[in-house]
User: Fold Xylulose kinase from Saccharothrix variisporea.
Amino acid sequence: MTLVAGVDSSTQSCKVVVRDAESGALVREGRAAHPAGTEVDPAAWWDALQEAAAAAGGLDDVAAVSVAAQQHGMVCLDSSGEVVRPALLWNDTRSAGAAADLVEELGGPAKWAEAVGNVPVASLTVTKLRWLARNEPANADRTAAVCLPHDWLTWRLAGGSGGSGGSSLEALTTDRSDVSGTGYWSPSTEDYRPELLELAFGKVPVLPSVLGPAELVAGRFGVGAGDNASAALGVQARPGDVVVSIGTSGTAFARALAPVADGSGTVNGFADAEGGYLPLVCTLNASRVLDATAALLGVGLDELSRLALSAPAGADGLVLVPYLEGERTPNKPDSTGAVHGLRLDTATPAHLARAAVEGLLCSLADAIDALKELGTPVERVLLIGGGAQSEAVRALAPAVFGCPVVLPATSEYVADGAARQAAWAVSGAAEPPHWSELTSTLFEADPTPWVRERYAAARELTVAK
Ligand SMILES: Nc1ncnc2c1ncn2[C@@H]1O[C@H](COP(=O)(O)OP(=O)(O)O)[C@@H](O)[C@H]1O
Ligand SMILES: O=C(CO)[C@@H](O)[C@H](O)COP(=O)(O)O
Assistant:
């Protein structure tokens, strides 16, 4: 049996799966936690990867390993390969002002969408580089190369380590899916846009080489991917599927045959990990809305679910606007969350739990609508990510989304996608291997459109932090 491994180095943790390259059967798995916060020393990802790999029985017997990771994080390296400062993550909003400046300097959002398929918001790497240039000029001066979390982990696995003896900066690699979230690579021309990096950062550091989806690095490492593109590989998404992921971020995305350029900035025009495209909407607030509400109520996640399901649809008018970390979609980096409709009869744990689940789902329903408005066909909605383990999320998603929801069997789909990429690279075939169909459960419910209507009115009523 040929074994392959897939890694998901995501915001909250690192997961490793070892699978049979041919059938996709799960052989072993492991995980380890990441530190909290929106700036993290990449060394912590490396340590977590070692711990998760050891928990998965080690990687010595696998033919290939691919790493998928959280998108957009800014990893700056100096000329000897040392990390210059802790990485700024996708959910760090300090570069919101830099994003607004860059949009204006290029002549407006449409120019950016046309150039790189994305309108800068604080999440994109290009805005973090502008922030660095303006706020930490000494660190910007020291920066000789810039890469993404999955690029850095792949480089280290393949021998790059910084200091003497490590691979050179020129050995850094990336893939289309992740580089398309930087803001300085164009999915329509498949090229870096160095003039945009120059505009943002004042210079063009060494950038990773962009390899094809099934290429191998140093003979044993897949090129890797952004975590959402890897999840699309993991669930074997097909045209007509919209995948909704409830992790730290909330995302809705679909595979597409042509690049997308949304001048409103709502939909990110990413590339996918198979040679196509991945229009995607991302929110900053998803599973942690449930974590925070459960903590507020002093209950666990299962009890939160039970409470939510015990309250009526619409929570008798109680609405929770989930902008607990500010928000990216809509672009309100300084906004805060809010609870509206509080009365004596709605001031109960059950009403608050219901409002939290419905608020989270309404923000994702808006994301699905944005994809539809750009012409994305929606034949099936697939629900994945840690938050999809919530009974309340499963039961209420079809009511709020207004359509049936497919729940694939619980699995680490980002890591699974990376393992499938590794199997593809090892096979030398033109297409990724077809692994057995996922077992899944269909959730259906009568639509509750009034829940979204009340949410739509309430989501505008938030104050800045
Ligand atoms: N039973 C559950 N009910 C609700 N949420 C859950 C449950 N189990 C795990 N989660 C959520 O999963 C989240 C982590 O999801 P994950 O997809 O691993 O995130 P990320 O990929 O961003 O690190 C946690 O914030 C936690 O709230
Ligand atoms: O920024 C995005 C997508 O554009 C996020 O989806 C990150 O890629 C983080 O993913 P999770 O850790 O929440 O899965």
Notes: Residues 10-13, 247-248, 287-288, 290-291, 301, 385-387, 389-390 surround adenosine-5'-diphosphate (ligand 1) (CB under 6 Å). The CA atoms of residues 3 and 62 lie 5 Å apart. The chain is about 35% helix and 20% strand. Residues 349-373 form the longest helix (25 residues).
